[in-house]
């Protein structure tokens, strides 16, 4: 580890901190429907949208209506995305004449982008037309992020309201999230990326003549080796900048190109790398301030922010340390090819500090974009992104999903604190009762059920589970485990090494993504509805305060303990065992 | 972010599965999932 690396990491966190109050305050005004400087421009557009779609913006919804609207909207947009992918060969903006996407892959992709996962079991530039990328995938980048923010605001309202049956209007919350929060930031961000060299065009892919033609040998499935002289290189282009900015800001993560943010057209230089990192954390961090403002307890918002920041610092310290230490088997070799640490799978432009930082940030949130290959990390370095997802991505988290995820853990924390002192637990003046804890437990349990079940089936199925796996032993287990962990957490990053574009993985990963999103969100909305109906209970001497360092410490402990109890056995058979075997001289 | 190995475009013919049949199965599965989600809303409400 270097001082320069640590300076960049700390500077990054300070910039995130500096943005938290202004952006969080702005979102508070947007969702409280107070005046903002964007109203003269956006209010007419909003009204027009409601008129066209028949939405009554003054109508409020109970939690079941809110959930129903969210499910209906997500189901319809999922089906439309699937349809466009299946007929993209008949549609315009397809200069490369790409064929229709296969049904299972189209289903996987539609589920992936609808759930804000953005897992891509395909090479985008060789699979999706410009129209598919823009009209369905980039569209979902906005909409799924907007839905996430709306859900977070709904539960915050549930906490803030007293004796009300409603938690807001889904259509209004989603529309305002997209129009006021995401679109303006994306327009500015896309222009910035274009200024840094990110392409934004509809041209067919460019072809360059190689100055030094290459001779390439390939072995076909029949075992025959063919030799080919490559004289040209195809350079993929397209409307990249506009997708790049929402990819990060909406914590979507689905790249325009296969190499994602390691591709120079998506992430040309260290400045764009830094801005992209800031974008990933910005909204998740700001929502903690919005939580404090809307519930009338700003100190609670900051206590939650501190818990997240501490978990982030623990994660980055572990990941950076592991990667900077490198692989001992390589370090001790005669030629010392890794004097600076583990550079395998990393861009030289970004180095170890920024690669480790990105890996931690992208998995603290539900982003899933990458600027290095997580599969090439050291076993412990690769375990940190995995743990971040297994903890529920509550460290700033996905836009909206991070906040409602941490609120579930807050409910568990105050419940445990209440048990300790023998009092009915309270959270910001609301008594936490059996129903709220049941819903919190449903939210927490559905994720390990999905991830561990599908991983277990895959690792004992040679025909469909192991046949597309590139690595054996604990590393192979980590690859499968990671695939389902990211799907259930709606992250979308890949450990690579596993070809997930098979019928089994496409369908089961899509299933994991759908259940991981909607079956977690529904109990969260039930908690919102339950809390909104409750009376406010004034604080007393026995109330466990949720604004103190003690609360922050308890929250961190609950997050870590729930994660450890659930996933430690699987982690010990995967990355931990691989780490021990690596020190014994064995790699996979 | 995609894995290293990928199959591009429509390649189901190599797996011997009729695309239209799979389209239908996936469509019905999606409908079943969202119906199940609505039932899950009722289930959660019933736990009160």
Total strands of chain B: the figure is: 0
Whole-number total of structural domains of chain A: 2
Quaternary organisation of the protein chains: heterodimer
The overall average pLDDT of chain A, rounded, is 92
Strand content of chain A: under 5%
Describe the global form of chain A: globular
Can you lay out the helices and strands and say which pair or pack?
The complex is a heterodimer of chains A (588) and B (48).
Chain A: H1 3-31, H2 39-53, H3 63-86, H4 103-114, H5 124-127, H6 130-160, H7 170-195, E1 206-219, E2 225-235, H8 240-249, H9 270-294, H10 298-325, H11 328-331, H12 351-364, H13 379-390, H14 401-421, E3 426-427, E4 430-431, H15 434-459, H16 473-488, H17 503-533, H18 549-583
Antiparallel strand pairs in A: 1-2, 3-4
Chain B: H1 19-46
Structure characteristics:
heterodimer; A: 588 residues; mainly alpha; 2 domains; two-stranded antiparallel ribbon; two-stranded antiparallel sheet; 18 helices; B: 48 residues; 1 helix; 0% strand; disordered N terminus
Q: Can you describe this structure?
A:
- The complex is a heterodimer of chains A (588) and B (48).
- With 588 residues, chain A is mostly helical.
- Chain A has 18 helices and 4 strands.
- The relative contact order of chain A is 0.12.
- In chain A, 62% of the residues lie in helices and 5% in strands.
- Chain A has a two-stranded antiparallel ribbon with strand order 1-2. In chain A, strands 3-4 form a two-stranded antiparallel ribbon.
- In chain A, strand 3 and strand 4 (430-431) form a beta hairpin.
- Chain A has helices at residues 3-31, 39-53, 63-86, 103-114, 124-127, 130-160, 170-195, 240-249, 270-294, 298-325, 328-331, 351-364, 379-390, 401-421, 434-459, 473-488, 503-533, 549-583, and strands at residues 206-219, 225-235, 426-427, 430-431.
- Chain A has 2 domains: 3-202 and 239-583, no CATH class; 206-235, no CATH class.
- With 48 residues, chain B is an all-alpha fold.
- Chain B has a domain at 17-46.
- Chain B contains 1 helix and no strands.
- The longest helix of chain B is centred in the last third of the chain and has 28 residues, at 19-46.
- Chain B is rod-shaped, with a radius of gyration of 17 Å.
- Chain B starts with 18 loop residues before the first helix and ends with a helix.
- The relative contact order of chain B is 0.08.
- Mean pLDDT of chain B is 73; it is low at 1-14.
- Classes of the chains: A mainly alpha (588), B mainly alpha (48).
- At the A-B interface, helix 3, helix 4, helix 5, helix 15 and helix 17 of A face helix 1 of B.
């Amino acid at each position: 580890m270097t001082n320069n690396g640590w300076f960049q990491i700390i500077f990054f966190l300070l910039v995130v901190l500096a943005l938290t109050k202004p952006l969080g305050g702005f979102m508070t005004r947007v969702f409280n429907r107070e005046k903002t400087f964007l109203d003269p421009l956006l209010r007419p557009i909003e009204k027009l949208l409601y008129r066209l779609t028949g939405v009554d913006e003054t109508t409020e919804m109970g939690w079941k209506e809110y959930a129903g609207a969210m499910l209906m909207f997500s189901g319809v947009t999922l089906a439309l995305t699937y349809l466009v992918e299946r007929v993209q060969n008949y549609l315009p903006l397809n200069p490369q004449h790409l064929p229709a996407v296969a049904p299972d892959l189209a289903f996987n992709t539609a589920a992936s982008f609808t759930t804000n996962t953005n897992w891509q079991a395909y090479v985008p530039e060789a699979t999706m037309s410009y129209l598919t990328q823009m009209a369905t995938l980039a569209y979902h980048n906005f909409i799924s992020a907007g839905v996430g923010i709306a859900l977070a605001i709904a539960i915050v309202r549930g906490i803030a309201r007293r004796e009300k049956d409603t938690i807001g209007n889904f259509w209004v919350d989603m529309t305002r999230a997209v129009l006021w929060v995401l679109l303006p930031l994306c327009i500015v961000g896309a222009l910035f990326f274009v200024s840094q060299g990110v392409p934004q065009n509809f041209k067919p892919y460019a072809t360059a003549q190689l100055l030094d033609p290459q001779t390439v040998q390939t072995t076909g499935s029949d075992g025959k080796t063919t030799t080919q002289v490559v004289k040209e290189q195809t350079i993929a282009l397209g409307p990249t900048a506009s997708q790049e900015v929402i990819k990060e800001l909406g914590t979507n993560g689905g790249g325009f190109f296969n190499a994602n943010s390691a591709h120079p057209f998506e992430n040309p230089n260290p400045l764009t790398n830094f801005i992209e990192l800031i974008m990933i954390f910005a909204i998740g961090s700001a929502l903690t301030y919005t939580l404090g403002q809307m519930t009338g307890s700003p100190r609670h918002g900051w206590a939650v922010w501190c818990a997240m920041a501490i978990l982030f610092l623990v994660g980055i310290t572990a990941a950076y340390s592991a990667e900077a230490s490198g692989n001992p088997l390589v370090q001790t070799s005669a030629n010392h090819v890794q004097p600076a640490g583990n550079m395998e799978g990393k861009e030289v432009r970004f180095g170890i500090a920024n690669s480790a930082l990105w890996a931690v940030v992208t998995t603290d949130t539900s982003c899933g974009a990458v600027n290095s290959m997580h599969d090439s990390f050291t076993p412990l370095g690769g375990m940190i992104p995995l743990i971040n997802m297994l903890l529920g991505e509550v460290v700033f988290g996905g836009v909206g999903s991070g906040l409602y995820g941490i609120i579930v853990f807050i409910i568990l924390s105050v419940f445990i604190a209440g048990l300790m002192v023998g009092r009915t637990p309270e959270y910001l003046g609301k008594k936490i009762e059996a129903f709220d804890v049941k819903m919190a437990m449903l939210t927490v349990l559905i994720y390990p059920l999905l991830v561990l079940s599908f991983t277990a089936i895959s690792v004992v199925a040679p025909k469909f589970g192991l046949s597309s796996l590139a690595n054996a032993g604990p590393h192979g287990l980590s690859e499968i485990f990671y695939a389902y962990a990211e799907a259930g957490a709606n992250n979308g990053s890949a450990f690579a090494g596993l070809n997930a574009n098979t019928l089994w993985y496409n369908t089961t990963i899509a299933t994991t993504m759908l259940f991981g999103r909607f079956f977690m969100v529904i109990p969260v909305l039930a908690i919102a509805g339950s809390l909104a109906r409750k009376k406010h209970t004034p604080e007393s001497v026995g109330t466990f305060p949720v604004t103190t360092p003690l609360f922050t410490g308890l929250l961190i402990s609950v997050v870590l303990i729930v994660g450890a109890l659930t996933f430690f056995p699987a982690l010990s058979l995967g990355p931990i065992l691989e780490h021990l075997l690596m020190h014994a001289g064995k790699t996979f | 972010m995609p894995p290293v190995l990928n199959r591009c475009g429509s390649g189901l013919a190599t797996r011997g599965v009729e695309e239209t049949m799979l389209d239908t199965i996936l469509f019905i599965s999606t409908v079943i999932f969202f119906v199940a989600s609505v039932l899950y809303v009722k289930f959660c409400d019933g736990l009160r």
